Amino acid sequence: MSFIIDINQDQFLEEVVEKSKTTPVIVDFWAPWCGPCKQLTPLLESVVNKKNGKIILAKINVDENQGIASQLNIQSIPTVYGFVDGKPIDAFQGSQPESKIEEIVNKMIDATPGNEIPKLIEEADKLFGEQKFEEALKLFENLVGMDPGNPKIIAGMLRCLIQLKRYDDANEMFDSFDEKISKDENIVKIKKLLDTTSTGKNNLVDENLIQEVNVDPKNMDLRFKLANNYLTSSETEKGFNELLKLFEQNPTWNDGAAKKKLLEFFDLLGFNDPKVIDARKKLSSMMFK
């Protein structure tokens, strides 16, 4: 089945309005003489083909279908309309980068009646936030079967594996990713987190460093070193606590190093991470007391 169709205005009701009640339809209004159309249409086709039937692209030549162009108030081309559940929900004019097109397409797919995936992702994220990592992982694994290329689902799986310290499994997943997934912003952050934290059983917290800090608790360099040691050994909560102690002692020490390191790991772990939520609250209370 082709996910890309050329239609005329007589087919618009059936192929766009009616069909969009079950499958979202993105409509490309173009003309043979339009230069920007020749740049945009291949990008639309590429994104739609990757979705493997979750969305349809309907192309309409405005020179041959001026009636429907007039009804939809098409004043310049290329113009793109998104239809979901029989109604237009999005539109844009002119060329757009592929990333922007994909964002619009994903929004349309998520809004499709009967699409349970966004709700299930939300449920998995809630389980993650409750620190029920095994349950969240199982739900994300089921979701991957439903929507294999969804970066939100893949990121959720990876974060669960890291929380469960299943580093080898996480690294195996990264080895299987195609270029597009590997370059996703959230996936890049998780890879950095995985590379930063320990991936072997031999990278343990330095007990001697703990003793040194206990003997000299005001030594901020030692405490910062201990915080880093905790963070790279996947003892995130302990690492955050040491950085919070540093910030409380002197927020501006070493050009605000404690706060910078906290914010760096907040970003890597994601704001849904329960340890991040707790540390952010503590940091905020210190900043605004």
Protein described:
By secondary structure, the protein is of the alpha/beta class. The chain folds into 3 domains: 107 residues, Glutaredoxin (3-Layer(aba) Sandwich), CATH 3.40.30; 80 residues, Serine Threonine Protein Phosphatase 5, Tetratricopeptide repeat, CATH 1.25.40.10; 81 residues, Serine Threonine Protein Phosphatase 5, Tetratricopeptide repeat, CATH 1.25.40. Helices cover 61% and strands 10% of the residues. It is built from 15 helices and 5 strands. A 5-stranded mixed sheet has the order 1-3-2-4-5, sandwiched between helices. A hairpin with a 2-residue loop joins strand 4 and strand 5. Helix 10 crosses helix 14. The longest helix is centred in the C-terminal third of the chain and has 17 residues. It starts with a strand and ends with a helix.
